[in-house]
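Work Package 4 report. The design task specified in the project plan requires that, given a folded chain encoded as structure tokens, an amino acid be chosen for each position. We show below one input record used in the internal validation round.
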């Protein structure tokens, strides 16, 4: 049975997706729209926001800006008339380098965008989610949040933090029926992953092909994960299909055993 043959119970669902105008976020938004959900999106990329379909509540927001982010969540809930699902997708790759070379400012910005933004959106969204008949929060972590990532300590630390946040929220919010899960993508097809591998290749003085080959040497399925595969997992968790799934860190990574 394909996804299109399964009723996920998302018709009319009210959804917020951060960084939803491109990449994984856009695939998630398109998936929700295909299921008949109503979606609010923020992104820092104004050009990408302009490509979103008409009728979406969309805002230009830097999730590192607390005031702008919380205003977006409040305005989205008002525009949607409530909230059923929050998808925390926003993130950055952070710096590439040895720990002694990384600036504190770069460390702090990575944690603020990847982890603190999720704390802020959840705190603002929970009152509305408590009123939903099918409430869920889905946080994007990374396989780096399970196995670590040499030369990418800010990113890995933030993504581990996302899993800790997710597990704690699942316990805390379970009494309200709000389920909270994390998705852990592996090597995802797209420009962002290419830039990460290019930065590593440059830092180590290796070719892109060598760094890419090494990355796939630690996976069982030696293919890039497509953004649509991440979106499919998000939709399943957000739908009535995910009613009893909470507190989980679900990898979509081709069985990645190591990042180095």
């Amino acid at each position: 049975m394909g996804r299109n043959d399964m009723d996920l119970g998302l018709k009319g669902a009210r959804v917020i997706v951060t960084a939803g105008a491109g990449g994984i976020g856009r695939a998630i938004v398109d998936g929700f729209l295909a299921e008949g959900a109503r979606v609010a999106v923020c992104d820092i990329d104004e050009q990408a926001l302009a490509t979103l379909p008409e009728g979406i509540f969309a805002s230009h927001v830097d999730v590192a800006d607390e005031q702008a982010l919380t205003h977006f969540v409040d305005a989205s809930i008002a525009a949607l008339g409530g909230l059923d699902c929050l998808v925390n997708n926003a993130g950055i790759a952070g710096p590439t380098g040895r720990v002694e070379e990384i600036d504190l400012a770069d460390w702090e910005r990575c944690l603020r965008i990847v982890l603190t933004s999720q704390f802020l959106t959840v705190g603002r969204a929970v009152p509305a989610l408590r009123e939903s008949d099918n409430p869920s929060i889905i946080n994007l972590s990374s396989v780096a949040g399970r196995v670590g990532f040499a030369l990418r300590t800010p990113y890995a630390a933030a993504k581990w933090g996302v899993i800790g946040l997710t597990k704690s929220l699942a316990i805390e919010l379970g009494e309200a029926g709000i389920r909270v899960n994390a998705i852990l993508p592996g090597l995802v097809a797209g420009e962002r992953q290419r830039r990460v591998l290019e930065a590593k290749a440059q830092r180590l003085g290796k070719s892109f092909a060598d760094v890419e080959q090494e990355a796939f040497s630690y996976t069982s399925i030696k293919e890039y994960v497509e953004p649509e595969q991440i979106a499919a997992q998000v939709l399943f968790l957000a739908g009535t299909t995910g009613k009893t799934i909470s507190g989980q860190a679900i990898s979509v990574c081709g069985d990645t055993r190591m990042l180095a």
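Residues 10-189+224-252 form a domain with the Rossmann fold fold (CATH 3.40.50.720). Validation will be extended to a larger panel in the next phase.
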